[in-house]
Design a protein that fits this description.
292 residues; alpha+beta; 6-stranded antiparallel beta sheet; 13 strands; 43% helix; globular
Length: 292
């Protein structure tokens, strides 16, 4: 059968993290997942295609992504990149590197939030990459292990303060929790998650939150920075993408099972949001899966 390759990393119990720096001309590693967090930096990789969950994008000259969920598939593939010297620095670390008691301290609040969001995969803007570039540049060759660890903490801290960080995979594809939001938002999101295949009416969702439809629309947008309709569409698309990857159901079945009532509209919306048609998305994942 076909499955996503589960990587057994080289992270030792004696080490805080495992770091590898490579210079390469192409990407050949298969679509994979692992239980460790991974911070991946790529330089001179313009045109490389990055897949994290149901996010598929072409990267620029600099790339820095944090992936932090055992179930989140990811891969970097060659795409249109023709660079003869692609530099890649990969740092993998365990989810218990920083204890829950330490992360609960106020000094670690921004790092705690970032590690939680990494369940979806996070892509950092160039401005954030440049702030930590000098530390990343020398991290792999730092001989003093304690100093190396302090540099790594500095990198995490600086990245946790960055603006315009992009959340990559949808929550419905990554199967992540929503337990860090207000109770009313949690309640509505959980209802949407459980009933995404059914008609979802604004007045019913507003009633769940104990608000009028107009007030709830405004409340939801302020709390999530998204419109309710856009959020519902993304949840449905995330479940659809997961079905495309994990099942052999035909695209028409998936369309209607995920709450869309028009196949052409589903295809158009999927391509607009994911950069490929449902058929292309399925074929892309099938190409990167390994046969076991």
């Amino acid at each position: 059968m076909s499955s996503v390759f589960t990587e057994i990393t080289q992270l030792s119990e004696k080490d805080c993290f495992h770091i590898v720096e490579r210079h390469k001309t192409e990407f050949t590693y298969p679509l994979h997942r692992h239980k460790e967090f991974e911070l991946n930096f790529i330089e001179h990789g313009a045109g490389v295609r990055r897949i994290v969950g149901d996010s598929v994008e072409e990267i620029g000259e600099y790339e820095l992504v944090l992936v932090g969920s055992e179930g989140l598939e990811h891969v970097w593939e060659q795409g249109s990149c023709n660079s003869k010297d692609i530099r890649e620095i990969t740092i993998q670390f365990s989810d218990d590197l920083l204890s829950s008691s330490l992360l609960a301290k106020s000094q670690f609040a921004s790092i705690r939030k970032m590690l939680s969001q990494a369940e979806h995969g996070l892509a950092f803007p160039v401005s954030a990459i440049m702030k930590v570039y000098s530390a990343l540049d020398t991290l792999a060759v730092e001989q003093e292990k304690f100093v190396q660890f302090l540099k790594f903490l500095y990198i995490l801290y600086e990245l946790s303060l960055a603006d315009d960080v992009k959340i990559l995979s949808s929550s419905s594809f990554a199967n992540t929790s929503r337990n860090k939001e207000s109770r009313r938002v949690q309640k509505v999101k959980q209802y949407i998650n459980d009933h995404y295949a059914e008609p979802l009416r604004l007045k019913d969702l507003a009633s769940l939150a104990g608000m009028s439809p107009v007030a709830f629309s405004r409340f939801f947008r302020v709390r999530t920075n998204r419109t309710l309709s856009d959020y519902i569409a993304d949840i449905r698309l995330g479940f659809a993408a997961r079905m495309l990857v994990d099942t052999t159901r035909n695209i028409s079945e998936i369309c209607y099972e995920c709450g869309f009532n028009n196949l052409s509209n589903f295809n158009r919306m999927f391509k607009a949001k994911r950069g490929s048609t449902p058929r292309e998305f399925r074929e892309m994942y099938k190409k990167h899966k390994v046969t076991v």
